[in-house]
Amino acid sequence: MARKKHHPPHEEHEGEPWLLPYSDLMTLLLALFIALFAISQTDQKKMSELAQAFTAAFNMGGPSFFDKAGPNVGRRAETPSDEDLGNSAYFAENKQLEEIQKKMQEYIEENHLEDQLSTEMAEEGLMIRIKERALFPSGSAQLVGQAQSIVPVVAGMLASLPERVVISGHTDNVPISTAQYPSNWELSASRAMNLMKAVLAAEKSLNPARFSAIGYSEYRPIADNKTDAGRQQNRRVEIFIARNYRFNPNEAPGGKQGANTDTGAANTPAANSGPATPSTNGAAGSNMATTSM
Questions:
Q1: Sign (positive/negative) of CA torsion 177, 181, 186, 187?
Q2: Whether residue 264 sits in one domain with residue 133
Q3: pTM to 2 decimal places
Q4: Residue 173 lies in a domain
Q5: For tag attachment on the chain, is the N or C end more exposed, with fewer CB atoms within 10 Å?
Q6: Which domain holds residue 267?
Q7: Whole-number Å distance between alpha carbons of 14 and 286
């Protein structure tokens, strides 16, 4: 009886073994591109969700490339955090301004200058008021007298702050007409300018771009010009340190915004469109002579 011939087992086609490594490579490339895309985003919550999803899909519970992946630090630095957008920046700035006000008050008390210098904290910023007789002779913009001691102290305090500084000159309503100062406009503007120059000269580290000088003439009185005492108060120079931030009452504790928060409200840096001073009883902002460095 003839033996039945057994055919050799069928061998796999020579081109089939490449399919497995090719599919693995494609999978890894897909994971890589998704990882790169996720890393480029600044949303940490979405990054964590992607990490969990692809760890489960491609690593089967093992260690994942995503475990060490994180947001792009460079790009994240361009976008302020929730805390930076909140009132924490306002409170930090407010604390710094309060410290400057305290130091200025101590200087005033130690040198018995209560009748010549004063400070006032307002929502817009910190105001330092200096009466005419502490810096200038009557009808003049030449710095004399106690200016040599007051100016360096003020300049040193301003050097520790980053805020914008507006120096404004004010007069009473008594007309002046001289060859040098045809009106109170020129006198108030010259006083502001000379004080600003003296402050910058006293502290070389100050950035002139932060400073501007304004002459308000008689149009921003703080007292009644009908009395001599009132006119003395109105003849003054003001150094105003403008806040960079405004308080946002709609912000919830923890730096998060409330449901009805106005996105353009006060938790963002204050607008720097122009000088703002809290002087009362003044005319419109058009009634001024201004000079910026």
A1: negative
A2: yes
A3: 0.61
A4: yes
A5: N
A6: 85-292
A7: 89
